[in-house]
Amino acid sequence: MTTPRLHEIRRGQLTFDVHDDGPADGETVVLLHGFPEDSSSWTRATPLLHEAGLRTVALDQRGYSPRARPLARAAYRLDFLVQDVLALLDRTGPAHLVGHDWGGNVAWALAAWAPERVRSLTVLSTPHPGALVRSLTRSDQALRSLYAGFFQLPVLPEVLLSRAMPSLLRRSGVPAEDADRYAARMREPGALRAALNWYRALPLARTPVADVTVPTTYVWGSGDQALGRRAAEDTERFVRAPYRFVELDTGHWLPETTPTEVAGAVADRVAAAR
Known about the structure:
alpha/beta, globular
């Protein structure tokens, strides 16, 4: 039987856009993007995953899907973001989970809280939350994370980012065509506020992210300006399962700039988990 393609999922009054591609009978890899990306951030990596025989299901997450854009910051608590992905897994069944940036944070939490739903985990750039917290007093990570404090302010971040986002993204290493596309998405009604609410909901977190017990690969760029080495190297402390750390000589935007390495790490993790 051919697996029907997913174009959307619904959770309550929210409707999320889904991009389901590759071999219909392949093992399912769920892809979770970061800020201020969307599911198109995986465009360069997905053909390589399809060549490896994998089905890719990329979700436009809460605030990024136009029909799933609540206004209140409380709607962006991590447990709600995880529940969105669990609703997707209700349709696909247990899957191999891949997350970048904020999508990586969601992936760590889901793997910790619902390991039976995750066949394997590959996280790009974002260390385990426990390692990140630990690094705040043991490295320069607190300085690297100052922007997250700025994002807590009302209105001002939207005003500044709406003007400067394309140039800021380019200077941080995002390819120009991607930077322009992401900036255009953020100009949609309510989109930038929704994306920033992921940060603004951080103080509302209720459940800590425990150790992960599923096979895990963590990929980090040594030139990442936001996420430093201490947390990257300490992440292994928070995984109680087969683990691989891949360090790349690049920056933060791994799906866009190193798709071959990303696809290879994912395919290797999937193969090892069989």
